[in-house]
Amino acid sequence: MTTSSPDSRPSVHPRRLFNASCFALIATSVCFGVIGASMGGLKQEFLLSNEMVGWIGGAALWGFTISIFVLGPLVDSMGMRNQMWFAFACHLAGALIMIFAQNFTFLFLGALVLSLGNGTVEAVCNPLVATIYPDKKTEKLNQFHVWFPGGIVIGALASYFLDGIGLTDWRLKIGLIMVPTLVYGYLMSGQVFPETERKASGISFGGMLQGAFGRPLFWVLLFCMALTASIELGPNRWIPAVLEAGGIPGILVLAYISGLMAVLRYFAGPVVERFSPTGLLLISAILSGVGLYWFSFAETLVVAFLSATVFAVGVCYFWPTMLGVTSERIPRSGALGLSMMGGMGMLAVGLLTSPMIGKVADGHLHQALSAAETLAALGPVSVEYPKLAADLPAVRQQEVAGAAKLAGQVLSDHASTGNLPEGTTAAALRAALVNMPPGAEPLVAAIKPLIGHADNLGGRMAFRYVAPFSLILVAIFGFLFLRDLRTGGYRQEKILDQKQK
After folding, report:
1. 3-class DSSP assignment, residue 196
2. What 3-state class would DSSP assign to 12?
3. Entry pTM
């Protein structure tokens, strides 16, 4: 199918643009999947705290907000084609920065650049899909958003496969981002992009602003978007690392969650028709809260998959349905409204939820460490590591000496205060594992299960902190659903074509 204007301008090819949009969203979601799968490797190699890893994960989210807030309102003036090429450049550059990073700063920078590309994809592709399929917005937006969880499945399974064949370097996982990026770059090449629906309808920029910010419902939906995104995306960033610390294959659980979400979104049409968008949001709020709270008790594979099922069913419709309600109930908000919704969701997760989860996890991790077991494990590290490293190259000697120094600092602090130092203790345990010299295996046999149990417990307790957000959503969505029932049911509003006035 192609479309052309009466003035014989080059044709628009909706199917190719839709496919390009889907691969761009796959690149975005692979970012989420592989960065989540790489958290353990980053933590070990760079001796990062959970909070530092949370900031890296957060940068991959709130940088999204920067681009979507800045570029979203400019989709009409800059053109969708130019912005999509900017997203392409960010996806390539961000992946390369992370792959060649040598410290926390460049890891953070790479994640930020990647997220700028992710936000641009969200800012452009939602109005693009709505424009090229004006009579099938809900259906096509749901099919488009299949590829966010679908891409996470692809990234997670690819990461799991690489681990299974012995290619465990996190850099290979980050490199996976470039595959769908190159595909959508090819699909965009030489293509003509249409005007946005708002611009084609003659709605002015001021009219778009008024259509968004002049409606109280828009402010309510913005607040709800912050909470729905926090429940969905905040925990998803941590699921692989948290479960794997407890001996559960977290990547497979994340792939299962994402795969189930993708299937449910693909068949969202009958579900939306049966329950209405506001009714569906109410049901989603209930199930997501129950599933996430249950997840905080996941100490076995069976409980992990059962709670993941409820959680996935709860969160799968949040993002596209929130966009759909905004487009259908506040159509004059145009690309700005859709961009603001996506940006608010990522802003909340990146600046608040993800770092909060990391901080809560660090606090509970520290409380879970037994002083006696920790001191017994670090004692040999402080004394024997330098001896075992005597014949190693100078660089390795320095690394081993650093691990011994950290272990000694924990022992010294505990001797003077009677408590394990917060933050330093976990870093010392990780350093002992990462920088273990040959022959030290018996000395640190107890460290991996010790830090693994603490990491797992801390992460699960952090999930429990996020779950109550769903109670707020139940109250708001319940009110909107009941209001629709009182006024005759959910009704879409139609955008007014100003050119016909």
Report:
1. coil
2. strand
3. 0.78
3: helix, coil or strand?
strand
Residue type, position 164, single letter: G
**Residue matched to tokens 């040598």:** 102
3-state secondary structure of 295: helix
pLDDT mean for each 10 residues of the chain (501 residues): 50 91 93 75 75 74 76 80 94 94 89 90 88 76 86 77 82 91 94 79 80 92 95 85 86 86 86 89 96 93 95 93 88 85 83 84 85 90 88 82 91 91 86 86 84 87 93 97 93 62 41
Which sign, positive or negative, has the C-alpha torsion 293, 297, 298, 302? negative
Burial environment of residue 166 by CB neighbours within 10 A (0 to 12, 13 to 18, 19 or more): exposed
Which residue is listed with tokens 């070990």?
44
Residues 6+ apart with CB under 8 A from 136: none
Contacts of 4 (CB under 8 A, 6+ apart): 10, 11, 12
The two three-digit tokens of residue 392, written as one number: 């190693």
Integer Cα distance of 32 and 91 in angstroms: 12
Q: Which 3-state string (H, E, C) describes 105-145?
A: HHHHHHHHHHHHHHHHHHHHHHHHHHHHCCCCHHHHHHHHH
What gap in Å lies between CA 409 and CA 194, rounded to an integer? 62
What's the rounded Cα separation, in Å, for the pair 48 and 39?
9
